[in-house]
Write a structure and sequence with these properties.
The protein is of the alpha/beta class and 276 residues long. The chain has eight helices and eleven strands.
Length: 276
């Protein structure tokens, strides 16, 4: 038998029965699979167990830690590496081959991963590429700690990044990300994210030293997030400079909705400031 990759795949879920089997179908080469469930009331847990995955049951109390950090701190991976994967993210053999090579590099402690997003039923080949720091050595990273007591309803780290103790590389082979459950769900999700971002912006203003670990991209975003031009800058950058126009109508609408998202954050920040 082929030796399995020494990686724990950790999949945070809630009611992901529609996607989970397809995701798990691609994971036969990995040594451990853990599904971290937040009280699903569909067949998510049964599907996970049918594939031999370890199921961890998470209940958030509204405080630190949230879902990913809770798993790392309380029911940690058994493998030397951990890869966080969403149920609607699907890997292929090209990614597994690239991952196998990356794991042989003893100088790296984490890797940025690349994704192919889909919108309105079409893959987005251009525009601002999605990247996540979702693969790292077990014990070498935790996600950012953010004071969310009393103001956040999101039980999983969303825009928080892992803080890694060591050098970081990148795996270029993309993961197929089909995060599309209809336009209504897309809008609802980004409404929740906008509320979270506006509240986090206020928290960062109270404690600027908490930005010390930010990436360059994070620093740019939070430095300019409340400025009037930022949503239009995002649209022009992703649609023109990053050639999102080549994705046709899907590329235009995606850039437009993301600009609406950043405009919503800006107005929420203004609203919060007026209330203080």
């Amino acid at each position: 038998m082929t030796e399995k990759l020494p990686v724990t795949i950790a999949i945070p879920v809630k009611n992901e029965a529609a996607n989970l089997a397809r995701c798990l179908d691609r994971l036969g080469q990995f040594a451990e699979i853990v599904v971290i469930d937040s009280g699903s009331d569909d067949a998510t847990c049964e599907i996970a167990k049918s594939y031999g995955a370890r199921v961890s049951n998470f209940r958030w109390d509204g405080k630190y830690p949230k879902k990913r950090n809770w798993f790392l701190m309380n029911e940690p991976p058994t493998q030397p590496w951990v890869l966080f994967l969403d149920a609607d993210e699907f890997i292929d053999q090209a990614f597994c081959d690239a991952l196998k090579l990356a794991l042989q590099d003893e100088t790296k402690d984490a890797y940025w991963l690349c994704y192919t997003n889909h919108f309105l039923g079409k893959p987005l080949r251009f525009g601002l590429a999605q990247r996540k720091l979702a693969l790292f050595r077990t014990g070498k990273a935790l996600y950012e700690k953010i004071d969310e007591d009393g103001w956040s309803t999101l039980d999983m780290e969303i825009h928080e990044h892992p803080i890694v103790e060591g050098p970081i590389g990148e795996i270029a082979a993309p993961i197929d990300h089909r995060d599309y459950k209809g336009l209504g769900k897309f809008i609802e999700k980004h409404r929740d994210y906008a509320l979270w971002e506006a509240r986090r912006y206020a928290k960062l203003a109270e404690n600027p030293s908490s930005q010390a670990h930010f990436t360059d991209r994070q620093m740019f975003k939070y430095r300019h997030l409340a400025k009037w031009w930022y949503p239009w800058f995002y649209f022009c950058f992703t649609y023109f400079a990053k050639l999102g126009m080549l994705d046709g109508g899907a590329g235009f609408h995606y850039a437009a909705y993301k600009s609406w998202y950043f405009q919503s954050i800006r107005l929420l920040i203004q609203e919060q400031s007026a209330d203080r």
